[in-house]
Amino acid sequence: MILTFHSLDSDSNKVIFKSEYEIIDGKYIFDDKSAKNTKIIMKINDDNTIIFKRIGDINMEMLLDVNNNTLCKYKNEMGLEFELIISTNSVKITGKKVEIDYDSKIYDMISNHKIWILFN
Length: 120
What we know:
Layout: E1 2-9, E2 14-24, E3 27-31, E4 38-44, E5 50-56, E6 58-64, E7 70-76, E8 81-94, E9 97-106, E10 109-119
Antiparallel strand pairs: 1-2, 1-10, 2-3, 3-4, 4-5, 5-6, 6-7, 7-8, 8-9, 9-10
């Protein structure tokens, strides 16, 4: 099974890739082709919150919840570590498409991120 991943941030950084995916225990698992040696694990919960996790050279876990701000911890293979506050603006799950819009805040810097995942 193949998915198409698109992301765009407020600095106009764009990522688009296709990846094979598998579903294990309700989690979508696929290679993050924007980062070496990194996988994405995404779980869509019954309440439309999404756990979005990266594992490998980049490690991070976000809970995307439109009702609550959440804490995200980021760490990469070079030892860079920081925490972000995630404010989820919207999560739309329709058919074979997931759309996510969220803001991340680190210190006083806020950036917007949009993710679209289409399951082919």
